[in-house]
Amino acid sequence: MKGSQFMIAAASSGSGKTVISCALMAAFLQKGMKTAACKCGPDYIDPMFHREVLGIESENLDLFFCEPEVLKPLFLEHTRGAEVTVIEGVMGYYDGMALDSDQASSFHVAGTLGIPVVLVVPCRGMALSVLPMILGMLQFREESHIQGILLNRISGMLYPKMKAMIEAGLKEKGYQIPVVGYVPEDEVFGLESRHLGLVTPKEVLGIRERLMRAGEILSGTVDLEQLLEIGRNEGNADTEAAGQAREVQTGKKARIGIARDEAFCFYYKDNLELLKNAGCELIPFSPLHDSRLPEGLQGMIIGGGYPELYTETLSANGEMCTAVREAVEEGMPCLAECGGFMYLHEEMEGKDGVFRSVAGVIEGRAVKKDRLVRFGYIDLQAQKDGIYFKKGERLRGHEFHYWDSTDNGTDCLAVKPDKKRFWECIHMEGSLFAGYPHIHFYSNPVFAERFIENCRKFQSE
């Protein structure tokens, strides 16, 4: 029997989606339920938060990266065996790739996967005005998928009156939608954005205890059984019959090193699973703490993260810097994204403003800027033939970074979805593919196939 699946969404960012989603996950864990998590959109932070703080594996659901026929089976596989799946929405519920578009929005994901939505409604300082706001969200699209309301920042004393008023007002307009509970004003729900990049065990432990307390509170203020029932309501039979996402060909095993520590921690679960399903063995290593690469590697991926916070330690680990540089120079296939790309430079500026030497693969410096340099989706277009990416081919990705490079590369063109803005980027030099974009393999699985095949060839050389 398929488990309960629902999305937590809101009219805007800053409405409490993250802490409420995590608190509900904690509440279900406390009930002994096998719980899965997902996050709409390309963000790495919230899925990492679900995994590191609550111990729940999380997956991005993104309809820019993946076509519906690809996203459906990936979602089905991720949630297989889960008794409940909590999906955290992104931004405002209808906010998509462009100012006037709901493409790739939480609403788009809910409709594609047949997922019912619980709308979080902040109520502080509001009374009757909350009703037209909810009605506007329900009426904006013919089928909103909204099947429950969760009130945020409201007292237990006021809640029964607000619940009755909202449900009666919705019924009068033809909507039989329940208010499933409320989130009280409590410091445990005051999760600040700085907590979302947790890296140290001590911080993780403290926030986990806080979220478990939040889960205990919601167990008393939210009708969890009603929420689970809502999660079984929306018909997602199409997801059940979705088939399988295109997988790359399996073959001879390839040992691929994955940089994974406090400095490098941004990886899409789907990318790593694709590699595993193709027969790759993923070997974690730490540019911060290890002095050498693991034995017998045939490829290497250095993802994004927070290297700018650890430049002193990264630079002091000269043995690892040398090992990475020599591996790339010897032709080991290497993918480096954002923070990983920064690490490959000759020098990187730390958050403290000090430049320090790092791996030295790419001539130039990674430099801190006083503004957000790039943000949002991109369509990556190859401008020349590389061993993984051929001229004219496309690969979808995302950028978000406050650091820039004195040499971003010129081998690809990054084009915004509106096609009005574009810029050169990416180093495709021999076995190296490096730049600021975070790429998603399922937007062009052939790219991943070529990378894996070159890893296997490196083994035999």
Automatic annotation (TrEMBL):
The keyword Ligase applies. The keyword rRNA processing does not apply. The active site is at residue 338. Keywords: ATP-binding, Cobalamin biosynthesis, Glutamine amidotransferase, Ligase, Magnesium, Nucleotide-binding. Pathway: Cofactor biosynthesis; adenosylcobalamin biosynthesis; cob(II)yrinate a,c-diamide from sirohydrochlorin (anaerobic route): step 10/10. PROSITE patterns: GATASE_COBBQ. Residues 255-444 form the CobB/CobQ-like glutamine amidotransferase domain. The record marks 438 as: Increases nucleophilicity of active site Cys. It catalyses: cob(II)yrinate + 2 L-glutamine + 2 ATP + 2 H2O = cob(II)yrinate a,c diamide + 2 L-glutamate + 2 ADP + 2 phosphate + 2 H(+). Its EC number is 6.3.5.11. Residues 7-194 form the CobQ/CobB/MinD/ParA nucleotide binding domain. Gene3D superfamilies: 3.40.50.880, P-loop containing nucleotide triphosphate hydrolases. GO terms for biological process: cobalamin biosynthetic process. Its cofactor is Mg(2+). It is an enzyme of class 6 (ligase). Catalyzes the ATP-dependent amidation of the two carboxylate groups at positions a and c of cobyrinate, using either L-glutamine or ammonia as the nitrogen source. Belongs to the CobB/CbiA family. Comprises of two domains. The C-terminal domain contains the binding site for glutamine and catalyzes the hydrolysis of this substrate to glutamate and ammonia. The N-terminal domain is anticipated to bind ATP and cobyrinate and catalyzes the ultimate synthesis of the diamide product. The ammonia produced via the glutaminase domain is probably translocated to the adjacent domain via a molecular tunnel, where it reacts with an activated intermediate. The a and c carboxylates of cobyrinate are activated for nucleophilic attack via formation of a phosphorylated intermediate by ATP. CbiA catalyzes first the amidation of the c-carboxylate, and then that of the a-carboxylate. This is Cobyrinate a,c-diamide synthase.
